[in-house]
Each structure stands twice: as C-alpha cells, then as structure tokens.
Here is the input.
Amino acid sequence: MVLNLDEEKLARQNQGDEGGPNRNRVTGRAQTLSRLNFLRLGIGGSFAILGWRLWDMQINRPPEARNTTQQEIRPIKIKAPRGIIYDANEQKLVSNKPTYSVTLTRYDLPKLVDNKDWSKDERARQKDLVTLQRQAVFDSLARFLVMDYVVGVVPEQFFGDPKVAAAGEEDQNATLNALERLLGRAAIDVKKDLQKARKQDLYVFPGRIQLNDSRFADFLKLRERKGVFFLSEAERVVFVSTFATADYEPVVVASGLNREDAMLLEEKRLDLPGVGIQIGYVREYSDPKLFAHILGYNGYFRSEESREAANKEAAKDYIDTVNPDNPINSRVVYDPDDKVGLAGVEAQFEAYLRGQKGGRDVVVDSSGHIIETVKDSEREALAGNSVYLTIRGDLQKVVTAALDKQISEANKEKSAGVSEGAAVVMDVTNGQVLALVAFPYYDNNKFSGRLTDGDVKALFDPEKAPLVNRAISARYAPGSTFKLITALCGLGEGNIDSNRTYNCSQFIDIPTTQVQQFQEFRCWGKHGSVNVVGAVEQSCDIFFYNVGVAGESNEFFGANRYYEKGNRKDANLFRGVGIEAINKYMDMFGLGKPTGIELPNEYNGNLPTRASHLRATGNPWSVGDTMTTSIGQGEVEMTPLQVCNMTATIANGGTLYQPTILKEVRDTKRNVVKAFEKIKLRDLPVSPYHLQLVRQGMLNVTAPRGTASRLAGQLGRLQVAGKTGTAEYGEIYGVDPETKLPLRATHAWFTAYAPYDKPKYAVTVLIAAGSRQIEGSTFAVPAAKDILTYLFPDETKVTKA
Here is the structure.
C-alpha cells in the first residue's frame, strides 16, 4: 500500500474557508453535509434514525447535558491472535503475519466546544465548521489509503422545487456532467436513474469508486454540487461502530499496512485527530494451489445481522450455567471491525481459532473521558487454539500435481476445455481424509489484503467459480462408478447371483410409447455373455440395465422388455430390482446427503425418485429413467467425496465412516482440547460374499482385460481394485464419424482402493470436461497411478527382467 502524503496538496484540497468572500459558500456546504449525516448512516446499515440521534447528542446537546457527572463502566478490548492451522505432519499451513491497522476513535474527532457567549448564528457556523473538519479527516485518510467511496444523490435536492425546475436545469446539467466523469457513465443514463428514484429519500449509485490524485480535485468540486454526497469506507465503518463500541474505543478502518507506511501515517497524526495505528495480524496462507479450498479465508461480517447471529452463537461458549445472570453471558465476542472465518477450516473451526480478547474495564464520565481503571479488571488476550488436520501436505502436493497434469493432457489431446476437477484420498479404516484437491483454485491470501476490481472479477467469475470446492460442493453424474451400487443392489435383492449372465450385443431396443415405439440403448462395447464380476470388469451397460429395470408392466406394451438390435421377434424380459431398491442402496451408502465432513457448504448430491422426477420434469418415471440411473447417468449426482467414501466402504467390508479432516485441537500449551474421533455411521447390511464378488470385479478392472488395463504391470506387486467411469452430460456437440451417434461432453472418473487384500487407502479422481468427450481410463486412471505410486513407493517398484 502506498500512502499519499503530499501535505501542501492535502492542505489546499481540504482547507475550509473560515471568513472572507467565500464564507457563505463554505457554510452552505457544511449545512448540506449536516443534513445528510443521517443518510450516510443508512449506508452502514439500518441504523439511520439511531445514528442521527447519536450525532444530535454529540453536536447539538445542550450544555447542561454535557456537564452531567453520570459515570459508567465500559470495557476496553485487546484483540487476540488467531489460532494456527497445521497439517497431519505438523507443518504450518497458515500463520499470523504482523501488520499494522489504521484506527479511528470517535471521541478524538473534531467536536464542538460550545461557548455560552455565542449567538445563534455563530453557534450554527461553528457546528458547520466542525462538520467540515470531521469530513476533512475522513477525506484525508481516504486519500492516504486510496479507499473506496460510494456516491449518492438526494433526488429532492438535485431536482429542487418542481415550480422552478427550469431555472435549476443548468445546475443539474453541470452536476450530471461531473457525475459522468466520475462514474464513467453517460450523463443521460445517470439522469434516467435519478428520475426513476425521484420519490426516494436517497439514491446510491451501484458499485464503488477509487479516487487517485488525478481525480481527487474533481471529486471535491463535485461534492459542492447540490444533493450530491460521498461516503468513504472509513466513514462507513466508524458510523456502523457507533452502535457497538464506546466513543473512546479505537475502531479499525483499514488493515494490512506495512511498517513503512504505518510510520509515515504515524508522523501525520497531529493533522488527523482521531486517527491511530494499531499493531495486529493478518492471515498468511501456505501454497493456495494446494490448500485454499481446505483452509478458506477470513473477512469482515457481510452484514450487521450476520454479526449479531455470530455473537448469539459465540455467547454459548461463555454461558455460566450455575449463574445465568453472570455479565459474562452477555459478552459481545465480535465487534464491527473483527474478522471471522468465512470459508473452509477458518469458518468451520471458528470457535476454536478465534481466541479470547483481553483488555480492561474503565470508568468513564458522560463525555467519554476515562476516569480510572476498575481494579483487577485487566485480562490478557488468549490466542486461539491450534487446529491439526488429517491432510498430509506432502500427499496434497502430489495429488494436486497429478490432477493438474491430466487436466493439461486432456486439453492438449482432446481440446476438451477442462478447467475443473477434483481428487480425494481417504484412509478406509477410519474415514480420515488425507488429501482433498479441487480445480480451479483461488488465492486465499487475496482476502487478507485489499481486493482490487480485478481480484473481485476473478474470484467471483460465475463461469469458473474458483471459490467452489469441487470435491465437496459440486455434483456430477458418477457414470460407471455407480455400477458398484447397482451390482450390490442386484445381489442383495436376489435378482442376480454370481452365475447369472446377460448377453451384451451392444445395441438393444426398448418399447416406449405408441408415438415413438422403440428407443435405442447401447453399450460402449460388445461383451457377449457376462456375469456380475465380468460386468464390473468390462463396465457392461446392458448387464446393469437388466439389473436395474424391474419386470413391472409397461403402460403401452405389457411387461418391461427389450429386443436385440435387428430382432424384433424375440423379447427379453427385464427382471431387475427397480428404482426403489436402487434408492435404498444409495441411501444405505450415505449418497444423496452430506457426508458430514467438517467443511462448510457440502452438497447433498441427488438421489432420483419417482416423486422427485415428476416434480422436476412434470413427467412420470419411465423405464429409460431406471436404465440411465442404473449406470450412473440421468438425474443421479454425487460429489467426488461421496464416490470416494462409497469406495472406502466397499473396501473395508461394509463399514460407513463419516469423512473427517480434523486430527485434533490443541491449546497454546499444546494440551489436547479435542482429540480425533473415528465416527462409524453404521455397518451396512451387505453380505461379505456379495462385497467380495464386486471387489473381484474391481480387481479385474486393473487387469489386462479391464477398463483400466493401462495400470496392468505398472504398479509392481501392488494390487489395485478400481472402477472407471465416463459420464455424459450437456448438449450434443457433434456426431461420431464411425458410429454416427451423437456426441456429448463427458466427465472422466476413476475410483480405487489398495492394497486389494488389505485395503488401506481409497483414491478418487474426477476430471470434468468442458466441451469434449474424455474417458476415465485415459485421463483419470493415470492421475490415480501417480497418487498410488507415491502412497506405496516400495510395492510399486517395477523390476525389469
């Protein structure tokens, strides 16, 4: 941050004429500003009336009120350093960087020192001068720090009396032309906005502006225009603080200054009454590419309502159940200038990380003067607790590199327009998440300083949405990874066994309606006769169509059935489980609901039912809907974390754990405040034999004939059980030149666990295509290979013959 400390220029721009020929102009300007103080308060929140009352009490209260001797006890607070966050190897992921903040103390701002000998006119003039002096402090500080301003117009003042509107038209045009230059909008558009807002007390132009040196002089001239006003960020913060802090308490209006800038401003404090420098801390995050989505960021409260809600929640930590009337129960934990965790671990573990403020209680008189410190009231600020995560920083780096590499490969080979993906690594024995990566990422260090317009545009880009953690907060069709659920459902419900086979001729026709009598469904290959193990190995769609579709009657053609391509005489009857049974198994595995991981904004996923389909589309559930659901397409949606947790549950023999990233919490003396807790949600009522059949099919997936055959012989003696997935989505973008079939973009999946015989880790990789087809076997599998090689360095050594 570069401070502008041109004293002569500031003096010229902020000087108020106290006499001479320009006296009336200055006084008029002061009166206009005084009338608008309550409007400025409105910008800060819904406190306009209270704010005006506060101003009235400070400036206009009678001498007898100012001379009262009423005393009260008020707290002075000292902020606490925020807790540190570590990875599983006790490597620091975030720390507190010393910084300097700018404060404003309302009591020390210029104020009226009344004189009983003043006339009424003189008293009014002195009030106006105080208003100007206060405004000069705010403006000077805003110019030093290049603060944002909001710009507003009072329509009543701008348009004036309708009877004499023509006479004021020239003045209006001058104002509009000045606003045009400042806002970068055509004067005619500005006028249209004001005309629409003519009945409003105040119209605030959208967005904020920054005023550098070259624009500041024009800004001050524009402020002279009738009905126009400005409010700097510092002024907004100070006005909001009037409802939560005492007049003598410093309020932080800007943070993130370096030492050199702070010292420059410190030298000018005599010219800026009320301004002070406070040493504090800002968060400094390790490699954002690796950890931003996990750690999150801090920021100021987005509204007064959110701060009140946070205080209400935080107060629960201080309730004295023995003595509910204890004053500590009504403690205000968060002040308006406090920062709070807004995303990731920072938000989830806010109660542990925030620490406890220190300070002292003082006796003040009615004017805000400190009379004395209350005995034994001094409290030391307590730093927040340290949070230790299950995330392994070394593994996170490897997973990020592996995913990044395959996204680049997909874009290079397929021009797939890939910008998003996710990868998760879990310990299948306890639910610990060891790595969690999402693309695109963002730089969470940006939130520790001042966001530029470019930062805001990039961070809140609705198309790329880098703030969204794709691993837990984005839903994707799981594709063929979902066939593991369909297989276990068919086995568990008795519709198939290890010997049951279905013939895959690649293309089948399904009777649908009398308007379109047949609809073609296909498999990605021609597999012949396959059982459940072979169907998992080969990812055979037609096998799982048969497992999914029940033999219920079709409205138009009787029992549900299909025909081999080119044979409309010999019908094959469906004898599958139906959508209700598939729903049961999805629910059993915890799909369609948050996993419970300790990160905010986790999505549910989507578990399609007849009722939800009818609500969403207006159409009844069909045979085709069951078929697409059976292979992980259509309306079924899962997060990468859910797919990984499903895989871990299959690997460990059917125990569903709640995924966790919390290893433990320690206080400043390294005492454990909260220890790791393995949360077993339930043991699934799934036959071990059925699980073994599915696991055998997953092992075959990575064998020479499986869909992940590129892993065969590439991982040494490590046996890996996995499942590929290629999920179509979106609109048709072309036609396959060989099959003449329509082409849609696809997401590439691979989920696996290892070792096969003694499962330890589950790994899930998703690469979400933007515009082209990409296969899980081609791009997701190699990423998983790099991850597994790092996890099992000895087992994956390939010896040359």
